[in-house]
Design brief:
By secondary structure, the chain is an alpha+beta fold. It contains five helices and four strands; from the N terminus they run ααβαββααβ. A four-stranded antiparallel sheet has the order 1-4-3-2, sandwiched between helices.
């Protein structure tokens, strides 16, 4: 009888150990995916922005092909991975992307420490998340919409009257992208 109890305990312990190991693997996989997803989004934005011919007029259609395509991919990743994805900036164009005080502190951290990624935990609306954050830097192609204030495309001036996302130079920190994994 005692032997059955010991064997049962050992078997249960082994199963629990395997379950914990599987949980660790799953968590590591989700973290790897978060980093890969952030990289994919940043690369996609860069690649699509580079399709804009220098000196060509940026229209609402061009804007949709670049920013709209990125937004669509962000939504697909969010839904398929069960994560939240946030873009945030101190100089936002869309009010939805205005940095919260917490995100503003992260932006400052990326400016000051020149880091290329950061993991932390955050609670939003009572839900705990593990957050992966990457900086987004301005590339030459970005200046078509984020360069000099007076050079912004007319539709942006009209559609975003409170636009602050201009005046950037190549290489400057534009903002951050965060992937939030529910814990």
């Amino acid at each position: 009888m005692f032997r059955k109890i010991i064997l049962s305990f050992l078997f249960s312990s082994a199963l629990m150990g395997q379950a914990l190991a599987l949980t660790d693997i799953t968590a590591a996989h989700r973290e790897d995916n978060a980093a890969a997803n952030a990289e994919e989004i940043i690369d996609m934005r860069s690649r699509l922005a580079k399709t804009i011919e220098p000196g060509s007029e940026v229209t609402e259609e061009t804007f949709r092909k670049v920013c709209g395509a990125v937004a669509k991919r962000v939504k697909e990743i969010s839904e398929s991975e069960g994560v939240k994805i946030r873009h945030a900036s101190l100089k936002n164009r869309n009010a939805m992307n205005a940095a919260t005080p917490d995100e503003a502190a992260l932006i400052k951290l990326f400016e000051d420490e020149k880091k290329n990624e950061r993991w932390d935990t955050v609670t939003l609306d009572g839900i705990a998340y593990k957050r992966y954050t990457r900086p987004i830097f301005v590339e030459k192609a970005c200046l078509a919409c984020h360069g000099d204030k007076d050079a912004r495309p007319r539709f942006i001036v009209e559609k975003y009257p409170d636009d602050k996302a201009y005046g950037y130079r190549t290489g400057e920190l534009r903002g951050i992208i965060s992937i939030l994994l529910p814990e």
